[in-house]
Amino acid sequence: MTALFTNKRISRSPSSLPLILGGSLTAVAILVGCSKSDDSAPATADRPADTAQPIHTIAAEPLNPPRAMAQMPPAPPAAPARAAAMPQQAAAPPAATSAAQKPLTPAEENERSAKSKLAALMRRSGEEREAENYAAARKTDDEILAMVAQLYSDRGNYVQAARHQIVEDEWLGKLTPADQQHLKEAALFLSLAQLEASQQHYDKALEKAQQAAHLLADLGGSKTLGYVAIDEFMANQYSLLHDYARCEAALREAGEIVAEASGETSVRCASLEVELGLFYLERDDYEHGFPVLEHALASFEQTLGRKDPRYIHCLCRIGRGYSNLGDQATAKTYCEKAVTLARKSLTSKGDVYDYCLQDLAVVEFRSGEYAAAEPLETEAVADIRQRYGESHPGYLYARSGLGRLYIRVGMYDRAEAILKETVDTARRVLGESNPETSYSMQYLGELYLAEKKYAAAEPLLAAALTMQQKDQSAGSASLAQLWESYAQLLHATGRDADAQTCEQRKAAIDQRLAATRQRLQQIANMKTDPVMRR
């Protein structure tokens, strides 16, 4: 079991249930190019189910992971959830590129044929499982295991994942008819929980998800992949309710089980590490966040290669973390590499591509390189608008960033047109209290501050400050910028004592970030010092 998920820093909460991420065979499906598409995704908060999906089929589907670092919201349809910590783009089969460029050798042709057969077996296994024909699925699992062992040996822990699927199918096959009914009830409770979440009734959503989890646990399924989907959903609700201790506990417990199910260097384990690492960065816990993300990055590189969108996504997220920490030079190294890989490797533009553009744009903005930031922001805005429309949260976030850029270069009229429209749309689409709305309000308030329209600036900045203090940790770099803007407003309106209080809070954040950068540098020096390594 990977050490990343064993050294808990908090005590387990009684209501924190075990959580894992993803299906055992999904890691194998990535390699053979037969992972399920978004069209087959389970009912979510965005898409309530007409009928409850069998709970044992849910975990292998694409999930909606929690928001990380309060950046770009998830892909449409928009959900009141944390932004996706992992992209939903499917990886191409490893041999596809070479096959398109040159004739296959006999060995490559045999491998391609074997992968095609494996993909067909996996589709058949899934169909048998959904039809509750577990005996047949169990036999198919044996064929899958043999072919996985032949193709990949134990690379990427795919053999381990296939064996875990056998164990789970054996458990399903032993359930009585009454147990099967309880399994369906658990699926129904999860569908109801997702419906409550879509209506922003997060406490009720948690209550129903807990009922689903208890039913599944009573059946002996607390280590199954269906249990994964339930508890990741619960982690999302904990985050939305600002119960970060339980959210962290759930994510760590998830890692323990997914490491046992598919291995600590598997794609699934790495995906969960990204989610956990981004959770730490969102809470400004960089000393725990960066090592987790670097481990995930190494796992993606080993298993999928550098051209895979998951590797690129993780790379740019690490860069954004360093930017938030105030280390723009390191951030630029990561983000430029991510953008270069995205432009060369991704076959089509999507969420990962836009993450890369916006993260690098933020780094350039914070470095004062506004001319370099503008084309990145402009491209991201145009791309998101074309794919999702002008009411999508991702478009609103990108557009507000472009408006803020225009403030810095003195183009106030253009900035005001963008930011007023963005604030109005965000209030209508996301609601007044949404954290993403607060950023648009902050930037419009900063525009009015720059124009010395203090009466117009104050309510916007004050509202943004109230919302962001609830949503962010006390040491957030973004919050520091807002404290600075509010202090400027207070000085300009003759409230110097209050302004000094705001400045002290910003200075405290800056000092904490500087101390963190120093500690991280010391750790890096120890790793490179041959004496210390001994």
Name the descriptors.
22 helices; 534 residues; mainly alpha
In short:
The protein has 534 residues and is mostly helical. The protein has a domain at 1-261.
Task: Detail the topology: elements first, then pairings.
Layout (H helix, E strand, L loop, with lengths): L25 H7 L63 H6 L4 H25 L3 H19 L5 H16 L3 H22 L3 H17 L6 H16 L3 H19 L4 H16 L3 H18 L5 H17 L2 H18 L5 H16 L3 H19 L4 H16 L3 H18 L5 H16 L3 H18 L5 H16 L3 H33 L1 H4 L1
Structure explained in plain terms:
This protein has 534 residues and is mainly alpha-helical. It has a domain at 1-261. It is built from 22 helices and no strands. The model is unreliable at 6-23, 25-51 and 57-100 (pLDDT under 50).
The assigned structural class equals: mainly alpha
Over all CA atoms, what is the radius of gyration? 24 Å
| Number of helices, counting only DSSP H or I runs of 4 residues or more | 22
Largest sheet: none
What are the low-pLDDT stretches, counting only 5+ consecutive residues below 50?
A: 6-23, 25-51, 57-100
Number of strands: 0
Beta-strand portion reads under 5%
- The share of residues in helices is 55-70%
- State the end-to-end distance: 25 Å
Arithmetic mean pLDDT: 79
The coarse overall form would be globular
SSE order, as H and E? HHHHHHHHHHHHHHHHHHHHHH
